[in-house]
Design brief:
By secondary structure, this protein is an alpha+beta fold. It has helices spanning 3-16, 19-27, 35-42, 46-58, 78-91, and strands at residues 33-34, 62-67, 70-75. It has a single domain (3-91), classed as Arc Repressor Mutant, subunit A. The N and C termini lie far apart (35 Å).
Length: 95
């Protein structure tokens, strides 16, 4: 593995490792959710959720679509989707 690959992986994992971002990714595991739905589940401010979503979008992990006044988010990187599923199985087997 080359240094550039290691750096890219480290950057991606760092962007996912924040507890709120990890929770968002777990919520988006099987479905897309609106910003409001994510905010309700995470129980933080709209501004805080937007900041975390922007970080995940900036890394190419999630994307969004607009539908009227709602913004729906979903995981678009299949590698991350597979990784979150594996993490979920390892750490939340009964959930």
């Amino acid at each position: 593995m080359q240094d550039e690959q290691i750096e890219a992986m480290a950057k991606m994992l760092k962007s996912m490792s924040h507890p709120i971002r990890l929770k968002i990714l777990c919520l988006l595991l099987d479905k897309e959710l609106s910003v409001g739905e994510i905010r309700e589940q995470v129980q933080t401010t709209h501004a805080n959720i937007s900041q975390h979503l922007n970080i995940l979008r900036g890394q190419g992990i999630i994307d969004y679509r607009k539908d009227a006044n709602f913004i729906y988010n979903k995981i678009i990187d299949k590698r991350i989707l597979d990784l979150i599923k594996k993490i979920h199985l390892l750490f939340c087997p009964n959930f």
